[in-house]
Amino acid sequence: MKLKNLYITVFAFSTLAVLLITVNGCKKAIDVGPSIVNANSSNAFTSNSSAQSTVAGIYSYLSAGSFFQGSNSVSLGMGLAADELKTTSSGSQSLGLLYSNSYSAVSPPSFWSEFYKEIFFCNTTIKGISESGQITPSVKNQLVSELKFFRGFIYFYAVNLYGTPPLTTTDDYQNNNTLSNSTAATVYAQILQDLNDAKAGLPDNIYVDASGAAVTDRVRPNKQVAAAMLARVYLYLQNWRSAENEASELIGNSRYTLVKDLNQVFLKGSTEIIFALQPVSKTYLNTIDANFLVVSASYALTTQLALNNQLVSAFEQKDQRRSKWIGTFTTTTNPVTTFSFANKYKVSSLSSTVAVTEYPIAMRLAEQYLIRAEARAQQSNLSGAKDDLNAIRDRAGLDPTLASGQTELLNAILQERRLELFTEWGHRWLDLKRSNNLDNVMSIAVPLKGGSWMPYKAILPIPPSDILANPNLKQNPGYN
Q1: Which domains are present in the chain?
Q2: Residue 91 has what pLDDT?
Q3: Pairing of strands 326-330, 273-276
Q4: What superkingdom does the record give (predicted)?
């Protein structure tokens, strides 16, 4: 169904335009300029509808690109940096640098500026809504809770990709101009606070639109979405009991089920979806990522990304994910080359008449099974861990795991994450990093990609313009 008054409104884009001008007009990402509350206070937060439209503008910005999907997305960028994706031609320079792991302080990935642009949107809008006396309490609670979820979500990626990113929850540009690096523990504490606040304030077991009316599309966060993200965060913090408990909230909820038909998992009506974004682009009516991942002759292979051969070889022969989620394309010109490509999302057509059948998915139930499997294994509940792992394997047409013992089972779970979550949200890179396997894997994978691996590249470089403009901000080790 089409969500009324949710993502795209004229007011939403006019408000967002002021936000973007404020951010893009500055010389550094942390220096976000004067507050949008001051710049646009006469319009943005004077009523329920104006506040809802302001938040809709943020949703639209996230869905239209940013680090959520497209050429600057975490899924594509970190899939290239890891051992999931490869370029099919010279293509984009930034994608090529990630693929060869040749990023540097001179040529950094673009995630940093996107993270802080979007954090600024959240901070400014949270303040404006919270301080407004013209927004009803129920609307205020819903919108602030949604924004806190997004802020926690964004900071999760900031801390995992950059190590010690500055933490700011204010729109005070003078303070933001002088921020120093924060410890990972400090950032994680804020992530947990935001996600727990969001979980407490969001609607329970129902998806709603901006007005609070129930909808079928799962494109705004609810209490279960916050729980799913908390499960992921607790897993990374090795808080196994909390990770298991949060994941169990999703697995035990009849609203969410593993979709048996693998061709149906990534459709917008999939019951496996926990949270997705509604497409807003007039060019990419379904997902933007499919236009990079579904390799075909129509785009002359200039920007498309194929799957790494080692990933394809890792699937068992009878694994249905190999036949349903991986496609092949053979060129017709010399040298004749056959590419394997990610075919989870299947609609790459740019036709204005193509049906909207796929939404970019941020979280789905399969991840929660694998989170709980790992958390249970870490707590020596090996039978429970096997049950969760086998739920994913059974859906893929595989026999139950033969892993025995805690170490072997944990390795099997990590391997299953590789095969189930490939090209989704940088999971492979982050899993290798948190399991202390990144150096071992990349020291073999990167030379095959034409690059050289150094352990410091596990953390990305901060853009040099920010370092030069803010003496309190320190570059990550290895990039000076």
Answers
A1: 10-96+109-279+361-449 (1.25.40.390)
A2: 55
A3: unpaired
A4: Bacteria
